[in-house]
Amino acid sequence: MAVHLISYLREQFTPAVIDQFGSELNESSATIQNVIGGVLPTLLGGLTRRVQATGGAASLIHFLDKSDYRNTPLDLSQVTGNPLVTAENTAPGRDFLEHIFDDKLTKVTELISLYSGAKPQSVLEVLTQTGTILMGVLGRQEQEKGLTTEGLQTLLLGQATEFRQMLPKELDGVGGLLGFDELVTPNGPQTDVQGTDNFSNNVINPNIPKSPEGDRRHENVRWLRWAMIAIAVLVLALLIQKCSQNQNGIDGVSTDSTRTVESNAMEDTSAATKQSIEDANGQVTDSTASGPLGIRDSSGLNR
Questions:
Q1: What is the pTM for the complete model shown?
Q2: Domains in the chain: boundaries
Q3: Of 97, 7, 12, 93, nearest to 50 (Cα)?
Q4: Which comes out higher in pLDDT, residue 104 or 211?
Q5: What is the pLDDT averaged over residues 252-262?
């Protein structure tokens, strides 16, 4: 059956996570429990109402498509107790809340604060971190599985009545502010997304039917990955070839290792050769010596 969103988010709040929230926010564990009871139906109901609005589903899909979810946590235990990670990864969650609630976010936070007894800032922190988890789940499905506007609407509207019923009566003000009276699950047969074979309880990889756009995007990612690998192999081969070339020890200029040098012992110093050189040049020794060409010792001229 379709993943039960309320249950999934509620399971994020283990006793250890609740205690950690209480410690970080200077609230009691009982108070944090009250906050959770108000935050979960408010967040899911508000999201569903946003999707019900004209153009709301398309706007949300566009919002999800702009973010990068590689570092978005999948559960709250990954961020509680680590302020640096929390600040870095929940900033997009705040944008997600503002997209859902618009200018009603402050009022929603205040109403849950009055209901739970927690400080408004504590409520906002719990709401932001929970929203970050929910945004990561939906965003991964949009980018990796091609979640469409129709699929998103079907998923949320399939549980709309439950979101409304889970809201505490003391938070009727939130329900009135957000129009929870309109949260009604449509009657009719199960849809593809709600069907038992089309949405597993594994939220990391639920079996949402893929769209052609999702398939194209996934194929482009695979093609780019293989292209980058091929380029890296080519560069590595060129570097290996360059390093294997012989270089002299002075200026690093490559030299021909197959070239041979003829030693002095190989020179032709026979008498016939010397006579031939003398006939042609007038001398067989150093032609740079002083005196006329062919005469090594210029003193011979005076004899």
A1: 0.63
A2: 5-210, 211-247
A3: 97
A4: 104
A5: 51
